[in-house]
């Protein structure tokens, strides 16, 4: 329809113009005299048509523009670097605005005098990941060049795509859940940990933003110290963040190393001709990108000095660094730093009245080092953020802070500064720092503010302080109310603290009352402590107590963690108790050896558990171990176990193993096993395999087995009348 409208409007402009051209060339001069009335009318009409065509085009373009009121309501206050009320294009946002660090001697406010980009070895992998879509995460040490590599890659691949730089995690969620559809968009998440907060970025939001058929790509960076925190047992307290990190495929995890490789150095030598900073960076022992970001020089400014201004500035930097170490992700106000800094002054200076004004100390700490980054990065709203590089050094214990813990006063001020929605992040930091009482306060405040899942975090915090009876109470109450997130975290708290007897007791209670989720939560939490014996005992308990609905849950969990020998023991125990479903659940995620499978089948025969045998045969077929199915079926054929034989033949034909099925059917004819022959005929009728009927009839006729021949011919009715006489003649000759 739109194409038709444009065609009509185009023709309205084009036809009069063509007529004028024809007249100008004199091709129709015999029809229209120069200056005649016809010519004048046509000229007037052409001008009118042109004006109307332009007007229509303008109206059409106005219609295609997005509604600014809608976009303003979504992006304003939630996204950075907006172009009026719309998202900017990738190419229109400067590198510094994307949080690429200033290099030494960078004077331009937009970073146009940054050193030339030195290609990295992982650029090709990075481009492939961005082109594929989804979440691409660059990780490495602070000042290794992660943000620069990512920014250059999206500029190369998607310069004309929209760029979404959310203010924080909740802002990103509000945008994603709005009515505005994001297409051809790069979502930029520098320092990913800032967005991994409650109601922020998680696996569900990633799937919503960057579905497989989406044109949205999420590009993020994270320091190795932060990434490691989400991969440890302690990091599992922020389960949503840990799940997101574990969901990133290896191809989308791009490491940027501190030191250049040989190939990267060759590229840098090419670039040094146009920029002497590159030449100096190549020779720097601390690393190429680290030198350009003035990392070592920033650390020296923080560490070395002997004047009142130095000690004041050093204390302000230390306070800001500790705010980030504590898990406070926002920039800090000058008022808060003024409240904190005295805890970081050396003892002779703590009570000195002659210290310079706070404003002077902040100006000193925020002054660029060598024209590059500054220890405290000032924001336009008057707040300050400690440099990533200095936070890394503090976390590694190579800073003026040494191994000193975060002071009580810092925790208190940050608790007061944190909003109810963000106080959980502070609790995560307190938990990782071993300040469990602070973590409990943070999590309880979030719970009291309406975050029901935060009660599970309370359970983890108080469990670390040995208050296990309270953890059990939280678990039991959450299980009764159906709060799955709290149930799981309370179980995790017991597991992290080695309270496996409590877990087993609670698991028995959950199994007895049929609380499948509580049971599953506890069963899964045996794994981190490698309590395989407890998991085995729990599985046996569900079988012995005839807890049919619970058996499958526990067996499935056990199949992912127990050894093959333990799983064989469990499967035999389930066979003795006639739990066919439990056997399949036990074997689901394992791969027993042929000898173990044979032992299991023999155990099933001894226990006369036909349901269990069917389950094992179905599992073998699912694993495509058809040779074992065929061999066992042959044994059953000669043993006269026709019921088991029928199950094996059914498994083969259901999985399209026609060759093995025909072999067994012919063996049945050879030994005149009429029951098996009837079963073969029934399966063939069900599958409408006329060709195999013909093959088996010929085989029966060839060996002179009249009884088998009649069973097969009767099974297919009159469809073989034309060949029946010939087959019987063959059978008579064979006889």
UniProtKB/TrEMBL annotation:
Cross-referenced SUPFAM superfamilies: HCP-like
Keywords, in A-Z order: Membrane, Transmembrane, Transmembrane helix
Superkingdom to which the source organism belongs: Bacteria
Membrane spanning residue stretches: 12-32
Name of the protein described by the UniProt record: Sel1 repeat family protein
Organism in which the protein naturally occurs: Amycolatopsis bullii
Phylogenetic placement of the source organism: Bacteria, Bacillati, Actinomycetota, Actinomycetes, Pseudonocardiales
